[in-house]
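ok trying this again, last paste got cut off
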Amino acid sequence: MALISKKKKIYPISKGLRQYLVKYGREVDIPIHYKELLRYNSSIPLYDSRENDTLWETVFYLESDRADIHYNLKKIYAIIKAQGDMSVMQHLYVDRVDLCIYGNTQPFRVRIVNRINDNFDYFYIKHADASRVYGLELEHLLSPNRINYLVYKDSLIEEHIAGIPGEMFMKQYIYDPLLNPIRLAKEFIKFNERCFVRLLGDMHSSNFVIDVTPDFEETHYRIRSIDFDQQSYEGKKNIYLPQYFKENNALIQLGLKHITPESMKQYQREERALIANRLRSSPKEIEDILKAMENDTISTPENIDNLKQELAKHYGHPQFLDCKNMGQIVRMSLNQVFKLPNY
């Protein structure tokens, strides 16, 4: 079982990481910042369609502030979706602004609605945490998913990642007779491998979504991380393996039932080969982000020391013990994809 002992601290954006963000077009001036959204006047709990408390609160702004705030939020959406072209935003309006009071960075979620057809979308504004930014960028570079995010000073803007929340999927959909258990179990194995290789922690069912895509013959599944706060922070190896979280037991049991040990090893090798190909295809970006990590502080000395010892034992590779920081550990972990997994 994987357990996180205490809340992770928020790490500021370092000079090296800021330079990376500017170089690759992630640093963009935005018209409204995280701190300005904290000026809300009142709030009410947000409930879902079944009257369950979502642990989000809908916030309200004074009449004198609301129009300006909503207009600037639309401009941010235009920057994310249309490179700042406001002409395509004329039919959109801000329906709601929610605040997640229990989240590590207490994010705001903005709901944007098209008044013509009532279609809606979301984006998030958060306090910029270096761990999360590294996590987003590594997800963009090393996973099959493209990630759209922007940073300006101490604000982080993230595009919504669509999918069925893992917790909801395991309660409502996993026993669907049309479910393909082998394909879903295979995807969980590959997701487990991606998280471990790039050291993304805390991937229990509340922190990922399942994207279901029907095909003409079969249904395809993609498990996508939605929380990147625990990128390369914890000192315990099991935190980086979703298979050790009890919240994921339904998916784990699916794998035990339908996947043989030989097939599991095959899927692990397949995923590592894909990651190796992505490392080869983006060498400059990978090198630059790893250099920024190696010159940054994103964890504690105790966590660094413990993790490098556990990974040295896991891989039978004593060079992990020479690592001085989390960036070096991530680099060493990524290098392992060019070898066969040791489990």
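PB: full thing came through this time. The first strand starts at residue 42 and ends at 47.
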